[in-house]
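Run p53 apoptosis effector related to PMP-22 through structure prediction, thanks.
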Amino acid sequence: MVVCGLACWRCRWLLPLLLGLAIIMGIIALAGRGWLESESAPYVQQASLWESCTRGEEDLNWSCESLMDYGWGRAAAATYLVGFVILVICFALAVIAFSIEILRFNFVRGSGGLLFVVAAFQIIGLVIYPVKFVEEIPLTGDNMFSWAYGFGWASTVVVIGCAFFFCCLPNWEDEVLGNIKPTYYYSSPERAPYLN
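Sure, done. The structure for p53 apoptosis effector related to PMP-22 is below.
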């Protein structure tokens, strides 16, 4: 067993902290305008989860259209947002579960199951967006899916990792709670004459 891994009472806050990190990355993804950007100058295209903006090469003002006018735009935003809301609920449940002296391990495993649901919703939103965006929005110049879109995927990867750990943590209940008696190893004097 790892000295201070997940199966350690002192380190019980690692998983809720990771969920908090996933929430921060999810907020950046939801608020960021870098889901799609022009790859090089002149920067004439940028998009968020909510809108797509373009401008002419000489123009300084962005002309934006809402992606909520498209069915796929609403679907991508809704699935990612639903996943994010469930993630916040899982974070609250994890803080409650790990605050109690005697962990409720079924409670922890249930949070792990919910985290898999979060990952499914977020992946659906993250796949719908680029596929339909490229099909239905006219792109200008060379474009790339950029930093805010990457934060969305990073949040999803952290959620998947936490989901596995939350589901497996109850298997180490005795180690976490310190219920295992220590095992002592000794040998008889005949086998270890140097101990005399």
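The longest helix spans residues 105-136.
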